[in-house]
Amino acid sequence: MRYLATYGATRATLARALNRIIDRWLRGAATAQAPAIAAAAKRAVPEVVAKLVAAGAVDDAAFAQSRAKKLTRTGHSRTATAAHLAARGVSADLVQTAVPPNEDSELTAAIIYLRRRRLGPFRIAAPPPEAKHKDLGALARAGFAGPIARRALALAPEEAEAALLKARRGE
């Protein structure tokens, strides 16, 4: 319960955390019965996770929605968000519902990424000649598609700021 109070969790992350806790206890245990106790505890992990899911303490769909919204708001691409959720054990169906293909939100996330990294329209100094290619590479490595990256880089600084203000207002 302490883990759930501290961290958002999916079924998979909770099961991994419980198994780590059991392993840590086993390393510190000094009794001959410790391996048998640890094995029994590990067998009980799926049942414990199922009970916590039934009680509503663990909800993969709510976790996916919340985490996807946060990651998009902080400038992560749809691809990066989907990979993050998959690594947390969220099923592919839930990932698809939590991260729907929306070009406007993807463009906004790209603009947020550019602002955070001070690239493209948010560059402080005059850009060197190769800056556009480097910025496109940075956006590609962050998981943004080429058309979205080009649109974000083509924005004037005023347009980019206006898009960010519009996104903050929820428009």
Task: Please tell me about this protein's structure.
This protein has helices spanning 2-6, 11-28, 34-55, 60-73, 78-87, 92-98, 103-117, 131-141, 146-154, 157-169. The chain is elongated. It has two domains: 2-58, no CATH class; 61-169, no CATH class. The chain is mostly helical. Helices cover 73% and strands 0% of the residues. The model has no long low-confidence stretch (mean pLDDT 90).
Most strands sheet? none
Q: What class, by secondary structure content?
A: mainly alpha
Give the domain tally. Answer: 2
Q: How many angstroms does the end-to-end distance come to?
A: 38 Å
Query: Which radius of gyration do the C-alpha atoms yield?
Result: 22 Å
What is the gist of this entry?
This protein is mostly helical. Helix content is 73%, strand content 0%.
